[in-house]
Structure formats: structure tokens, C-alpha cells
Amino acid sequence: MISFQKKTFLGFLIIPTFIFTVTSCNFSLKKASVVSPFQRIAVLEPEAKNKPDSSKIKDLLSFENILDVCRVPFTRVSIKEILKKKPLQYNIILVPNLSAEDLNSQELEFLRNEVKNGTGIITDSISPLTRALGLKFSEKAITVDKIYDSLYYRKTLYWPHSTNIFPIQDISGKASIIATDNNSGIPVIVSDTMGKGRYICFSGLLDPYTSKGYSRYPYLIELMDKFWGNIYKAERRCSEMYFDPGMYDTISSYDNLAREWRSQMIKRIYAGGWYYDDTEDVDYAQLIKACHENGILVYCWLEPPMISEKFWKAHPEWREKTATQRDAHVDWRLLMNLADSSCLNEVFKELKQCLNQYKWDGVNMAEMYFDPIFDGRQGPDNLTPMNSAVRNEFKNKEGFDPLQLFNTSSSHYYGKDSAGWKQYLKYRKELCNRLKFKYLNFLNGIAEQKKDFEFMLTVIDVSLTPDLSDYIGEDFKYNLELFKIFPITLQIEDPANCWGATPERYKQLGKYYSAFIKDHSRLVFDCNVVASHEAGFGGFPSEKPSGEEIRQIAYNMSIYGIRPAFYSADAFFSGDFKNINSTVARDVKIEILADSTLEITTPTCVSITAAGKDKKILLDNKEWRAFDQKKIIIIPGCHLLKITTENRDTSSLSITMISGDMLSAEFSGNRADFEYNENHSGCYVIVNHPPSEVYIDKKTSKPEILKCSNGEYSVKLPQGKHKVRLTQ
């Protein structure tokens, strides 16, 4: 993110210039005049003749931060610098209102002519530039508190504050109306062509509130990509998604679902495991097979104390009780009394069968806590655990039945006996710890019997809201002890009362948990993409995170290199998968060289989209046959990528997808040699022809090979770092 510090000189605001450069590889090939194969973008800096309004400074920074979060290269320049350089060095110029206000007639005429010649302009609010572009605004202001996005979100976007704006009028019939005032239907964001070029204009400021660019319209990057293209540089296959089959009305084809996830570059799916005894509705075998054919890892997602609906119905004697002694159906979960050893033993018996019956790649034990997620004294109807076994154990230990905490005539009523209430909270937390240990000990036994199997514990974060620790019985210190005892990956879920907070909370979490867990491959952050922004709550326009907010979330997770997970796959807008993938690949640098060769520098394995996917491709002057569907896989390091005019030989063995990180590769005739790394589970590599021989670390191997429904072949490789040879 760009940090902005105001500096004053002789009473005027001086804003530092940011220029993004690309570190070159040690190749001797001469650079061409074109800096990037992507759009050459400038953000026009203001003349700063007068002290600007703070809202316009935030607006200016919003334009820059939107680009910087996903590392879209741009240069901050003054209009005078642009006028000096002929021909124009940029094909898209972002002109925030603060920069547009002081342009003189010569400068305005220059920009107008450049648009006619093919340059793109993006600007906001009324200014001399909008008049130069021929835009007319109504003399009568309208009050806008929400807009309707007709291009991307296709829903209402709520503004943090009602604002009077002057809407654009007399729009041409060929103009694209991007968004309208929700109440009147009057256009407030439009795009139109002028000669060979195009402009986008916002009737009001893009974001006068946050400097992050998401408070009014969070889809500027999407607009740029739609109208000019080539904005996204690279993508990284690393997102992990929760999947609850019950959230779908019907699943007509697991194959289609898995292919869709593959195209969205999802790496792992956590599939709700509470349908294990309901095979009519969910076919885990087909789901896992379809995902493995598409290179996607599938974990069994458990939600104790919930087991399954059938288990709940079959065993009323083991149902958890609340403080009002009703059966504990709290929110969506049907809670069981795991403190009853008979119940727990039966649960383990059934889960063992489920975990051994199917080819899971891992297990995720999530959200083992006690309800409610607020102070239980305010909601005894949801307060757990209050079953007879728990009450008897607590009474034997502390001398009174915990139900007395809610009896107003009792001396132990929580309003009279604060020490008794604290004793119950302490006992509750200790019980939760005991149950976690028993569950993890059981799952560890399963994991030890399986190969290439990740073992995960998902817990609710209590660092941001410490009171939550007592509310739900979550003990972070004990979770760290479990992390030391068992070979688990720890996933941190931000609590519901933080879902409406700003994306920077993930940077805060990253700093906090990095102090305890050094191996970040064993640390995951979970973001709940749910309708947590009702009517623009928290300054976000969409009801659930999307567009710029999703990019900001992915960015803040990536600062400390934490694995990103999201609930859930069905909740996302289609374009937001690319927003995650491209943001986590923001450190990739690309230049185009003299003969249309791309120079690519990347610290991780990524995929890039380039024209000519059907052509023969050379990487560092050697034939390259590693693809991710329509994208090209690029291994870590600094490389030269050239797309030739020859057609690609599809009869030769090619890699068409890999779930792990490819570290190196060479292709020769009917052979593919490569090295990969996958820390905690198996690795799926998909090829276009069946391999007749497989060598792993120079030893003959017989891995599982699936023939995919689309004619490809999925090869399951072992966990860890390995060198592989596939022969056609």
C-alpha cells in the first residue's frame, strides 16, 4: 500500500511522486521502448496551487491505492512532464478531481486531443477536464445515498453518507451507463468513446472517505479491464474455499462444479462433512473424484459439536441442552453432548468410517466452541453446555448446579454471584479444551494411517475481541499447545463481530499470529464472505465483500504470507476469484522486450495470460509445455518467455495444471521433467496424455492416475518437495 505523508513548502502542498520500476534479469537482450505488455498507466498529480480539501486528497490516494494493491504498474506524473514527452508514453491516464481542477486551456486541449487519438481517461466529479471532454452536468443537484451498478455487481451499492452531486446529462446513445442513482435512475457513472479513445467519468468523487477506493464504487479495476483490457498481470493458484453442499438447491453435476472451481483457480475445497450419513443428497465419492480430475484437493470439514442431522434425530438422548434446558439447535448447528463418553465414542466410530471410506486429502476440524457468540447472561436460551453430565461435573467440582446462575431467587444468580459466573466460564473453557484434545487425538490417529493428508484445526480469533474468549470458551494459549502437540495446520477465523471491519484487520492478525507460528505454510486465515455490510454498514457499498474490498482483504492476508481461505465458494461473485488470484501474485514483474519476448520475474509459481496459447512457447529459449488451461505456468525466478509463430505440437506430453508449486521443468519429446513442492498434502498434476512411466526422485513409481472426463489424466504425487519424470 502507498503511505502518504503531507509535506508543505511555502504554504503549498507537495505530494511525493511514486514511480514503479521493474527489476531486470541478467539477460543481454536489448529492451524495447514499450515498458510493459500491459497498459501503460499514469496518475496525474495535482499542481497544488492551493491547500486541497482532505476529501480530495483521499480521493487521489484512492486511485493510487487501487492500482497498488494488485500492483498494476503506474507512474505518477505532472501534466508538464506529459507535455514534454512526445509521443505520449501512456495509454490510460487517471485524472483525480484534485488534479483536474487546475488544468489550463492548453493542457486541456492536449488531453482532449490525446483521447481522440486513442488514449483512455478516467476522472471524477465536475472539473475543467469534464467540460473539455464535452460532458454536461445538470444544474440541479440530486441527493445520492445508494446507486445501482448495472455492469458488474448488478445490485444496489450503498454510500456511507448521502451526498449532493450534479449528475451527467445529455448522454449519447452509444455511451455505456455503468451506474445510476438508485432512487431516480439518473446516470452517475458513464463511459463513452471520443474519436479513437474512451473516457470514464464519475459524477461524484470516487472515494472521499477512505483513501482505499472502496467506499462508493469498488470496481475501478474491473472497469479498466473491461474497456481497455490487459490490466491483470498474473494469477496464483492458492485460494482455499469452504463448500457446503446444502447451500445449493441442486448439484446436477460434480464434474461441472469441479471444472468451474478449476477455472477459478481454487486450490482446496473444504467440503461439509455432516452429510456422511445422507448419501442420497451428497455423493462424496463423486465430488472427490471430480475434484481430483481437476487437480483440486478436497478436505472433510467437520463442525463439532454438530455431527449431522441424522445423528441428531437418531440420538435425542445425546443432544446438548441450553441454559433453558431446550435442545441446543443454535443458529444452523444441531449440537451434541460430546462430554458424554458414549456419545463421543459413537461419533468417533462414524467419523472413522467416513474418513476412511473416501479419498480425502485432509480434514478440517472447525469451530469447536460453545454458544452463544455474545455474553451468555444476555441469551440463556442459546447458552451451552448445560446438559446433565456437565451440570453434575460442575456441581461436584464447584458445589452448585450451574443452572442456578439463571435462577433469580438463587444465591448463585449471576447478578449476585459474579465469582460463580467466572467459575462456570473457566470450567466451560477447560471442558472445550478437553474435547478439542480428544477430537484431535482421534483425528491424528486417522492422519497417521493415511498418506499425504493435512490435519487442520480452525479456531475463532479472540485477539481482536478478547471478551469473546469467555463468551465461546476459546482458549488461544491452549490452541498453541495443541499446535505443538499435534502436526496440525492452524486456521484462524475472524469472529462475526469483526466481519464488518476494514480489511486491515488481517494485517493485524498476521502480525499477531506470526509471533507464535513461524512456518506460515501451517497458518491459514479464513474470511467469511457474507452479507455483513447491511445498507453500507462500515463504509462498504456492497452487502458482502466484493471488488476492491476483496482485493484489500487478499492483500492484507498476503503481507505476512498467510494462506487465504474463504467462506464460501457459492457466495463469491465470479470476478472476485480473479481478484484474489491476481492480488496474491502482485509481486510478479513483466516487461516486453525487442522481439515480443516477455521478461518475467516472479518469487513464486504463477500463471499468466498471453496471446497465442495455441502457439509453440519458449521459456529461456527452450520449449515450454506447462499450462494452466488458457494460461501459461511460470516457475519462480527470472525468465524470458517467447510465443513463436509455430503451432504447438499437442501430440507431445504437456502439463495442463498442477496443484502444487512447480519449481523447475524441462520438456523434451515425449518426456516432462519437473520439480514441485506441496507442503502438507498430495499434489495433483494434470497432463494431456497418459504417462507410461513415472519416476519420483529417480525411482520408478506407480502413483494413482485418473482418466479425466475431458480426456486429460490426473496424476497424484506425494507430499513434499520432489523431482518427477513423466514419460508418454
Q: What key attributes describe this structure?
A:
disordered N terminus; globular; 25% helix; 728 residues; Rossmann fold; nine-stranded mixed beta sheet
CATH architecture of the domain at 7-231: 3-Layer(aba) Sandwich
Biggest sheet character: 9 strands, mixed
What is the SS-derived class? Answer: alpha/beta
The N- to C-terminal Cα distance equals 47 Å
Assigned CATH superfamily of the domain at 7-231: Class I glutamine amidotransferase (GATase) domain
Number of strands: 41
Helix share bin:
25-40%
Global morphology: globular
Q: Count the helices. How many?
A: 17
Describe the structure.
Among the domains are: 7-231, Rossmann fold, CATH 3.40.50.880; 589-727, no CATH class. 25% of the residues lie in helices and 28% in strands. The strands form nine sheets. Strands 4-3-5-6-13-12-11-8-9 form a nine-stranded mixed sheet, sandwiched between helices. Strands 15-16-17-20-21-22-23-24 form an eight-stranded parallel barrel, surrounded by six helices. 46% of the residues are buried.
Topology record:
Layout: E1 7-9, E2 12-14, E3 41-44, H1 54-69, E4 74-77, H2 79-84, E5 92-95, H3 97-100, H4 105-116, E6 120-124, H5 128-132, E7 136-137, E8 142-149, E9 156-165, E10 168-169, E11 176-181, E12 187-194, E13 197-202, H6 220-227, E14 234-235, E15 239-243, H7 254-263, E16 266-272, H8 284-293, E17 297-302, H9 309-314, E18 329-330, E19 333-334, H10 341-357, E20 362-366, H11 388-398, H12 418-449, E21 454-460, H13 468-472, H14 476-485, E22 489-493, H15 505-514, E23 523-528, H16 548-558, E24 563-567, H17 574-583, E25 589-592, E26 598-602, E27 606-608, E28 615-619, E29 622-623, E30 627-628, E31 631-634, E32 637-647, E33 655-658, E34 661-668, E35 671-678, E36 683-687, E37 693-696, E38 699-701, E39 705-707, E40 713-717, E41 720-727
Parallel strand pairs: 3-4, 3-5, 5-6, 6-13, 15-16, 15-24, 16-17, 17-20, 20-21, 21-22, 22-23, 23-24
Antiparallel strand pairs: 1-2, 7-10, 8-9, 8-11, 11-12, 12-13, 14-27, 18-19, 25-26, 26-32, 27-31, 28-29, 28-32, 30-31, 33-36, 34-35, 35-41, 36-40, 37-38, 37-41, 39-40
Helix pairs in contact: 7-8, 10-12, 15-16, 16-17
